[in-house]
Structure formats: C-alpha cells, structure tokens
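Wed. Picked up where I left off yesterday with YjiS-like domain-containing protein. The coffee machine is broken again, so keeping this brief.
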Amino acid sequence: MHMAEIATRPLHRLGGGAAAVVRGAGAVIKSLVRSWRNRRVVGDLLEFDDRMLADIGLMRGDVTAALSSPSGTDPSTRLRIFAVERRAGLRAQALEREALRAARLTGESVE
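Structure written out below (tokens, as returned):
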C-alpha cells in the first residue's frame, strides 16, 4: 500500500492506533492554534486604557502577567482566573464592611 492511499483513507478505516494518533495530533494542533489566537487577542487588551480594563475586571498587570506565560499556554485562561479572584475578593471585602457596619449599629464588639 502506498502512502498516498493511506493518506486518503478515512480515519475509521485506518487501524485503531493510527486513528487515535491522528486524532490526538489534531487535538494538539487545534489547542495550539486556539492558544495562539487567544494570545493575540489578549495582547490587544494592552491597547485599552485602565478604566476600560477595570470595566471588565482586569488590571494592566493582569494582562502582562497572562502574556508572560509560556507561548504554548492560553493566556485567556489566566485572565479569567485573575478576574474571578478579584471579584471574589471584592465580594469578601463588601461582606466584611457590611458585617462591621451591622455590628456598629447593634453595639456589638468589633474585632
């Protein structure tokens, strides 16, 4: 059998191991292309001013930190983590302020 015949055969007709290798390689390539595309989009965020970044829950340092990750990784994942952590921190601070306010109103001791 010639290589041209093998290359044109449908995956399901190749041996199970060969089909798995082809699917695995395709998944890796797809992941790398997605990471490269997302890296370019994240780089475009550096053109936003600080107010615009704050509107989407990010700071300029978040963007540069995400872009400093290895080139094969997806920086948008790190940005998502930064934004979620920041929102959680802001919620915790708001709850703490509210608890302090309520304690003052009721005359409880605040520690």
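Quick read: The two ends are 80 Å apart (CA to CA).
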